[in-house]
Backbone:
């Protein structure tokens, strides 16, 4: 018996469905255009099925968060979804105002609209439980206009936010096809990882990584953790390496006194099981230049791991039977600084063991290198996948379970 409802459990014909998705995409920093639409393509099966069932589909999504450089509206996302669906997707630059409500009220069966960036709303940033989120402005304003709530946002299913866990208390709810596929596939694939197991953690989000490292090493899920990207720079700083003002400036938004101390504690507790870069790559006179950590600081920011680090990490990955990577090793979008990310993913392919990639940026990188099809499993989730691996409950799944108990299937 399923723990939560899926699309076959309801009759959506002529009903209004609020579909929460995760289509947070990597952007070009100069033009703010979408670089990779993999996450948008991943929700197409769910949207297409709902259209086929003659539902009125109202899409709720986010891009980045307030204050970040890539916090933009969703016009491009709607256009790309329309292109991939080969069906119209109307964009409404509003979430809970009169324009949004009017657009929802005027929908016809089989139509699709996408509302504005849900993280424009302050209530979406509140940390709270399911019951409190059910009373948030977003849920109070939109729930009277919808008959069902469908969540296909696996990439954010580890977050307890009102758009994710508030609606299942108010309306009958189900998972989308992507969400169900991710949960069942990952539970099957990663039930008992074969040893030795290596985790490669990178990207720009550092706050949760110390906890992640502690859990996977303490529980024996991983034998070794490789830390790269901005997270690697932060751990180098915690180890006492002067990474330079330029690199520190990039870390400013993520690095706090609390998580900096957490990184130091992890290095003290787990020692040689946590592998950090031994060199970094910077841009100097238009060229990629490798600098040993012992020769830092550099005036230029570290944009990738260096060649010696690549060689060191590849040896560990090649000897593993399970490899998991979440977050790129550097600014892979910048020509010349995709080297570290590409070589680590290539090592995962060459290892012949079970290989799993998590997160939109990591999946996008693998696609750009034509390596995604050679990985055992590519997940749309980063933090969600990590939470699942740690055997911790996903708030969205718990909310969907609650909704099934309350409303049942039809």
Residues:
């Amino acid at each position: 018996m399923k723990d939560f409802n899926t699309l076959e459990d309801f009759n959506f014909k002529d009903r209004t469905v609020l579909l929460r998705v995760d289509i947070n995409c990597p952007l070009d920093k100069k033009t703010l255009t979408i670089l990779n639409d993999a996450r948008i393509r991943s929700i197409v099966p769910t949207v297409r099925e709902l259209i086929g069932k003659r539902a009125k589909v109202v899409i709720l999504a986010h891009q980045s968060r307030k204050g970040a450089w890539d916090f933009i509206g969703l016009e491009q996302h709607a256009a790309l979804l329309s292109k991939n669906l080969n069906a119209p997707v109307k964009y409404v630059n509003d979430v809970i105002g009169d324009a949004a409500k009017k657009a929802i009220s005027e929908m016809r069966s089989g139509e699709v609209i996408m509302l504005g960036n849900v993280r424009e709303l302050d209530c979406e940033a509140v940390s709270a439980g399911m019951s409190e989120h059910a009373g948030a402005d977003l849920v109070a304003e939109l729930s009277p206009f919808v008959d069902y709530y469908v969540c296909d946002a696996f990439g954010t299913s580890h977050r307890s936010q009102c758009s994710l866990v508030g609606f299942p208390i108010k309306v009958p709810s189900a998972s989308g096809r992507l969400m169900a596929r991710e949960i069942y596939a990952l539970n099957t694939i990663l039930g008992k990882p074969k040893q030795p197991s290596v985790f490669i953690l990178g990207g720009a989000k550092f706050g949760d990584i110390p906890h992640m490292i502690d859990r996977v090493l303490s529980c024996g899920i991983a034998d070794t953790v490789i830390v790269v990207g901005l997270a690697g720079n932060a751990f180098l700083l915690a180890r006492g390496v002067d990474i330079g003002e330029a690199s520190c400036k990039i870390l400013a938004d993520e690095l706090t006194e609390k998580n900096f101390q957490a990184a130091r504690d992890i290095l003290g507790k787990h020692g040689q099981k946590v592998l950090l870069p031994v060199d970094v790559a910077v841009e100097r006179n238009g060229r990629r230049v490798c600098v040993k950590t012992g020769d830092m600081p550099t005036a230029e920011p570290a944009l990738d791991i260096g060649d010696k680090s690549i060689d060191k990490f590849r040896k560990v990955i090649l000897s593993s039977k399970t490899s998991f990577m979440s977050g790129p090793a550097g600014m892979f979008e910048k020509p010349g600084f995709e080297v570290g990310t590409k070589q680590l993913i290539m090592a995962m392919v060459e290892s012949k063991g079970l290989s799993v990639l998590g997160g939109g940026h990591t999946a996008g990188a693998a696609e750009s290198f034509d390596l995604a099809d050679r990985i055992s499993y590519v997940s749309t989730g980063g933090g969600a996948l990590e939470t699942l691996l740690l055997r911790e409950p996903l708030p969205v799944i718990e909310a969907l379970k609650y909704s099934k108990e309350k409303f049942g299937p039809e």
User: Anything to note?
Assistant: The two ends are 15 Å apart (CA to CA).
